[in-house]
Design a protein that fits this description.
- The protein is α/β, with parallel strands linked by helices.
- 39% of the residues lie in helices and 12% in strands.
- It has nine helices and seven strands, in the order ββαααααβαβαβαββα.
- It has a seven-stranded mixed sheet, covered by helices on one side.
- Strand 5, helix 8 and strand 6 form a beta-alpha-beta unit.
- Helix 2 packs across helix 3.
- The relative contact order is 0.19.
């Protein structure tokens, strides 16, 4: 499933390919992030002494309003981000299957490839090893490199561009959350929202996390990242 934004939306100009990690390089349907999501809820319970339901509601509020639950907890509860990251990424990575078609498609892209993730590098490398693509990316720009200011905040992107000397007008961003594509669009990047299947639903996932938009900041939509990359507009 791929929708193009404009008749002249060719990506021939792209020299830097920037990918989110979670629910983008692996399918949301494998529910890897659901494990992290549950651990975050328990972390919020521990910090706030709230029961499960109220902690979960607060977690999602922070995720929506601050970009990450971590950012909200840092602002509101002064937690140690390293302790948080090591705790919520203590998961089983076996649900991520090897994906040789995706690895081949990314390897064939002309130019540099990066990961820009609100997770940490250790988590990203664990996912990439499962996919079979740990060798593909020039750099993983993680939440620590962002100084814990996550997407969708402009500072997260500006620091990434500066560190890697990226011209946004010659770059493209792939992300599962449409709100994370607003700043890339404003900065001149091409954008692609990677979505779950239309019938996907999960009790741990709120509607806004699956939201799609016809807004101008989403240039392309795909439910098949490997297929999109093999058949670039």
């Amino acid at each position: 499933m791929t929708a193009l934004r404009l008749p002249n939306a060719s990506l021939d100009h792209v020299t830097d390919w920037v990918f989110d990690l979670d629910n983008t390089l692996y399918p949301r349907e494998c529910n890897l992030f659901a494990q992290i999501d549950t651990l975050i809820t328990h972390y919020v319970m521990e910090v706030t002494r709230l029961d499960f339901d109220r902690a979960r509601s607060l977690q999602k509020d922070y995720y929506r309003d601050f970009g990450t639950t971590l950012n909200g907890l840092m602002h509101k509860h002064d937690i140690d981000p390293d302790h948080f990251l090591s705790t919520v990424h203590a998961i089983d990575y076996s649900p991520v299957d090897p994906h040789p078609d995706l690895v081949e498609a990314i390897a064939a892209l002309p130019g540099r490839k990066f990961i820009l993730t609100n997770g940490d590098t250790g988590h990203a490398r664990a996912v990439l090893r499962r996919l079979g693509g740990d060798h593909l990316f020039e750099h993983v720009h993680d939440i620590r490199a962002m100084t814990f200011v996550p997407k969708p905040h402009r500072e997260a992107y500006d620091g990434f561009f500066a560190r890697h000397d990226i011209d946004p007008t010659r770059a493209i961003m792939f992300d599962d959350l449409e709100k994370n594509l607003v700043v890339p669009h404003e900065q001149g990047m091409a954008t692609v929202q990677v979505v779950a299947g239309a019938d996907f639903a999960h009790e741990q996932v709120e509607a806004w996390e699956l939201g799609r938009t016809t807004g101008p900041h989403v240039h392309h939509v795909t439910g098949d990242l490997a297929g999109f990359l093999r058949n670039l507009p």
